[in-house]
Design a protein that fits this description.
This protein has 129 residues and is an alpha/beta fold. 18% of the residues lie in helices and 27% in strands. The chain has a four-stranded mixed sheet with strand order 1-4-3-2, covered by helices on one side. A hairpin with a 5-residue loop joins strand 7 and strand 8.
Length: 129
């Protein structure tokens, strides 16, 4: 049996990028050195495997859209987008504004990694998507 231990995010400066995600997700730093920083959910009791975020220093620059990104489900989309902007994220266009059915906001973290803030769902309706 396999489980996902962590999602790894390549970046030029883990110590500069990890604090954005620590504050955005309200997670905790569980490991840090010059080349990497690990974040974990503070509510991870181990009963449901939940991956860490691992920020790794790489020499390469980000050139194109991420092939893997995070979709975040807020309780209040507008409030979360504003909070994330205050932390250093910015809204970006990847063509989603041409779809009248778009219910998410595409953003970039301070290093340019895309992520989406989805629409809020009532807790009882939020099963997996």
């Amino acid at each position: 049996m396999l489980r996902i231990q962590c999602l790894t995010i390549d970046c030029a400066d883990p110590q500069a990028l990890a604090p954005f995600w620590r504050d955005a997700l309200e997670w905790v730093v569980t490991y840090e050195d010059h080349n990497e920083v690990a974040l974990e959910s503070p509510v991870n009791d181990g009963s449901v495997p939940f991956p860490d975020l691992l920020f790794i220093r790489v020499p390469d620059s980000k050139l194109t859209k991420n092939r893997l990104h995070l979709d975040l489900r807020p309780a209040d989309q507008a409030a979360e987008v504003a909070r994330l902007e205050a932390l250093g994220a910015r809204r970006v266009s990847i063509g989603q504004e041409n779809d009248p059915h778009t219910t998410w906001v595409v953003m970039e973290d301070p290093a340019g990694n895309e992520f989406c803030v989805l629409r809020a769902l009532p807790i009882e309706a939020d099963t997996t998507a």
